[in-house]
Amino acid sequence: MKRICVNVTDEQAAQLGLDAGGGVAVVNILVKSPAFEAGIRPGDLITGLGSEPVRSAQDLVSRISALKPGSAVELAGRHGLAPFKVQLRVIERPTREFQRPQ
């Protein structure tokens, strides 16, 4: 599968006014996924999952993977400079054929 998100470097975080290790940048999105349906798009920053900050792409993926399908979770981040919070319903990770063509 293509990479969904990448780490925000400490330098990038500082430029964006975030704490060091201040989240991940979305680079691809799966069409019809809960994140896509909630309006998350490439270029958005993800800074929190539930009540905890997101520190890396691996942190985000492992924490979502640990949740049971059907669970609800809050995702926090920024569209440009505008902060957002959305509620998502966790689904099973889709197979490659559900990935948006690039």
Write the layout of secondary structure elements.
Blueprint: E1 5-7, H1 10-16, E2 24-26, H2 34-37, E3 45-49, E4 52-53, H3 57-65, E5 72-79, E6 82-89
Antiparallel strand pairs: 1-2, 2-3, 3-4, 3-5, 5-6
Commentary on this structure:
The protein is an alpha+beta fold. It has a single domain (5-98), classed as Pdz3 Domain. Helix content is 20%, strand content 28%. The protein contains 3 helices and 6 strands; from the N terminus they run βαβαββαββ. Strands 1, 2, 3, 4, 5 and 6 form a 6-stranded antiparallel beta sheet that branches. The chain is globular, with a radius of gyration of 13 Å. The protein starts with a strand and ends in a 13-residue tail after the last strand. The model is unreliable at 97-102 (pLDDT under 50).
User: How many distinct folded domains?
Assistant: 1
Looking at CATH, the homologous superfamily is PDZ domain
CATH class: Mainly Beta
- In percent, how helical is the residue content? 10-25%
Structural class: alpha+beta
Whole-Å distance between the termini? 12 Å
- The total beta strand count reads 6
**Overall geometric form:** globular
Provide mean pLDDT, rounded.
Answer: 82
Sequence of secondary-structure elements: EHEHEEHEE
Rg estimate, integer Å: 13 Å
- Total number of helices: 3
| Subunit arrangement of the protein | single chain
CATH hierarchy: architecture: Roll
**Are there runs of 5+ residues with pLDDT below 50, and where?**
97-102
